[in-house]
């Protein structure tokens, strides 16, 4: 279990930055530039991008309903799709072709004849949705088990208890090696957890701001209430 964040250049175990929206980071040992998405996974990176957007909306809440809708519509998509594919014979050339299982992908091109097909002509939307729900459910359950049981260090074999805090990695408490949760469970389950933690932290912060504004009885109270609604709207939007 677990490879940790191993530098591709020098092989040392190096920590990821806390903010995953930066595109790259430097190895702590050899200073090589490493791409975040390769280590944290695209879904964790997109979770942070969405959280950054929500934070921006909270910092400057849009005035009217129209601006609010625009802010929600402009939110970056949370990518948590299935990277998997199913090999099926192309309906044009009969060669084996890879049909994407990601529910957000509606068309694909045959690698042999290049004809573009609707995915639904091969696998029904209902089946893909059911597969996706099952995948997410399994990922969430595996992550809950990981939090309950802890993670064994790949380098020293030490047993680490984990805190459910939305982090994508955990430093080994014995040897300091960086342990990636996504090495043990589905990366998108880790990203969903991270998103949930981030959104709840922002809602808590908005509530505290609103309570403070109400105490002072300022007009700010309305703006903060609008921001809370915007955040709840985004939470709803990101489950699309
Ligand atoms: Zn290095
Ligand atoms: Zn074909
Ligand atoms: Zn260790």
Can you walk through the features of this model?
The protein has 240 residues and is α+β, with helices and mostly antiparallel strands. The chain has one domain (24-237). The chain is 44% helix and 13% strand. It has helices spanning 36-40, 42-59, 65-73, 125-149, 187-216, 220-237; strands at residues 24-26, 33-35, 85-89, 96-100, 107-109, 116-118, 151-152, 159-160, 169-171, 178-180. The chain has a two-stranded antiparallel sheet with strand order 1-2. The chain has a two-stranded antiparallel ribbon with strand order 3-4. A two-stranded antiparallel ribbon has the order 5-6. A hairpin with a 6-residue loop joins β1 and β2 (33-35). The chain starts with 23 loop residues before the first strand and ends with a helix. The model has no long low-confidence stretch (mean pLDDT 84). One zinc ion binds at residues 7, 9-10, 12, 27, 29-30, 32.
